[in-house]
Amino acid sequence: MNTQSPLPAPGAPLQHYVSIAPFDLQSVEAMTAEQSKVFQASQLRLMWWKFRRHRLAVVSGIFLAALYFGILICEFLAPYNLHTRNMDYIYSPPQQVHLFHNGQLVGPFVYGRQMTLDMDTLKRNYIEKQDDVQRIRFFCKGDSYRFWGLVEGDRHFVCPAENGQLFLAGTDRLGRDVLSRIIYGARISLTIGLVGISFSFLLGIVIGGLAGYHGGIFDLIVQRIIEVLQSIPSIPLWLALAAIMPITWSPILIYFGITVILGLIHWTGLARAVRSKLLALREEDYVLAAQLMGAGSSRIIRRHLIPGFMSHLIATATISIPGMILGETALSFLGLGLRAPTTSWGILLTEARSVSVIAFYPWLLLPMLPVILVILAFNFLGDGLRDAADPYK
Questions:
Q1: How many CB atoms are located within 10 Å of the residue 371 CB?
Q2: Which residues contact 100 (CB under 8 A, 6 or more apart)?
Q3: CA–CA separation, 141 vs 176, rounded Å?
Q4: Tens of pLDDT along 177-230?
Q5: CA-to-CA distance for 51 and 42, rounded, in angstroms?
Q6: Quick one: CA torsion of 361, 363, 365, 371, rounded to 10 degrees?
Q7: pTM value?
């Protein structure tokens, strides 16, 4: 049986159905509350929603935020002062934290230790004394320090027991607590990446922006310079640039010198990325409109072109910062970067350059752990930001 409506007779007028209700932009289509929320959201909010779905990137962002907050109060977080020496506990291995003693809940504590010397290998052996319970203290008074080198203080988040020891990551050849030195070293290793990427971004955006917008002979010269710099092996280039810095410089000057070196090395990749983006964006209609209105090149690049791919720059920065941290670590490990008494993760790893030291005292490699975690966290965060940069995809 045919259930379709009969066709109108030839020549008969077609019937039209027109709604006489007032036009409402928000109700063009019947949308649910969730659809309406997405429809009215700004691009920044859409980016945040997409980034929030990347769980690994969110966890990495929280982890990095906690680390960067920690470098502001590293004197408070570290159990010991940076230069405190415990000469009776040289090369002491990490202590294990316990909660129960003889079946009773005591709280977080460590057992005291007694050192014996192996006359055959001259290795120090530490034996736990099960009858010496040393409870860990929190928000306590300990070693004195100068907060950011300005204010005297002696409060710590965690401290050893009175007349006790607390070496959660062991000690080095001078009896200094490795955990405290890792916490202090984070201030240099983490900030050098931010300072270095700022310098690199300044060179990359300016040089790459001018090359991509103007083109011509300037673009040709910039590309040849970038190719020459990228063809030089990294380690010989580091050697040459690090040798320029006088040995008489203070640690602060050496710190800024290292950031300049890292910025000079890493600006080339960003410059090429900026150039390729501007080559595509400079043909857009809004750029032509700005030129006809009399806008200069610097204003067009700054106000119209760069904001068009700012999300790409942010993702590139999160991926480039790990390279800066690895560069400082490598330079300091090779003895070409920062020098004592400045403390960074690279300087701490110089303690483990000897094979015999690694064999007998493997905990001196622990400064490598935060380097690995930070590098992974920045890469995961960069992946999340890169995906969120295009919320409509």
A1: 20
A2: 106
A3: 18
A4: 999 999 999 998 888 878 888 888 888 888 888 888 777 888 889 888 888 888
A5: 14
A6: -170
A7: 0.79
